[in-house]
Amino acid sequence: MGRKEKDNCCWKKQTANIEEVFQVMEVLGCGAFSEVYLAKERESGKLVALKCVQKKDKDGKNKALENEIAVLRKIKHENIVSLEDVYETPTHFYLSMQLVSGGELFDRILERGVYTEKDASNLIQQVLKAVQYLHKNGVVHRDLKPENLLYFNTDENSKIMISDFGLSKTEEMGIMSTACGTPGYVAPEVLAQKPYNKTVDCWSIGVIAYILLCGYPPFYEDTESRLFYRISNAEYEFDSPFWDDISTSAKDFIRHLLEKVPEKRFNCEQALRHPWIAANTAQHCDIYNSVSAQIQKNFAKSKWRVSSPAKYLKPPVNPAKPSAAIVTQEAIFCFMLYKRNHVNSFNFYWCAFGSGSGTL
């Protein structure tokens, strides 16, 4: 089960200067609303990932960050990056996070040299077990994607870790209907701005499984309206020749997760019982050459790391039909151009409007 909450009065540690507590060593990453640093705790010498978030509201409150902290304090799992401590200065919040050093999912696949369907199955099994734990504890991640899957260390058999709970929400916070996440990975009901539940995470796992087996996303288009249309109607293919050597069991597994109707979609328990995960139906033949070539075309860091300025967008007026009218009150898209073979397509990063100051 999840962690038991401590008294709310003492979980934030006050400090006038964070460098009195940590030696900040180097930048690990930057986002629209935060920076992450490699840091060493001065007292213990322990290395951590230190997430720095500037305060937004005049009263020092940061509702989105408070939400993220509330979720992280509730959970503890071997495949989830953990929150160690929270510090507050007059101008910033600092989250001391467990440091994972094994690198990102795509990078490790490219470094392998040999990669099989069974490797993909083992990865998805770890993700499913972690998300099953989240769901049992009433937490919905809402932004599962390969970029948020990190390896714990550099060992060949390192476990995978789920990170970035900035858009996560607990079911006790009420009905979820906010359109958030990364559209290439979000379920149709999210794009439709309908009330949704934890099965949106299972859809995202289906998208990740698809990518792990071919190296490109199931939904790709040259305009956002067409992309929304394909997602909303669960329109995807197992294209030849990329899927010719992939087992029928793997395809069946993906079909159960990329199910348009949430009530018919596999939950984590059902997915973990599927033969592609639980039995030995995942093939052991090497698919590295095909998958790695497609990953490099579609997910090169220079393409998915650099984003254009944020735009205010709104989901389609009628998600069942392509529409040119796409603007919004509740979301921001930072979109990145990528290429699949000779087709230019957009992969959008969608984060909650006012992240760092608004509610989710």
From TrEMBL:
Class of enzymatic activity (EC top level): transferase
GO molecular function, a single term: protein serine/threonine kinase activity
Source organism, top-level taxon: Eukaryota
Domain Protein kinase: 22-277
Ligand binding (ATP): K51
Key words of the record: ATP-binding, Kinase, Nucleotide-binding, Serine/threonine-protein kinase, Transferase
Pfam families registered for this protein in UniProt: Pkinase
EC number: 2.7.11.1
Family: Belongs to the protein kinase superfamily.
Protein known as: non-specific serine/threonine protein kinase
Source species: Callorhinchus milii
Classification of source organism: Eukaryota, Metazoa, Chordata, Craniata, Vertebrata
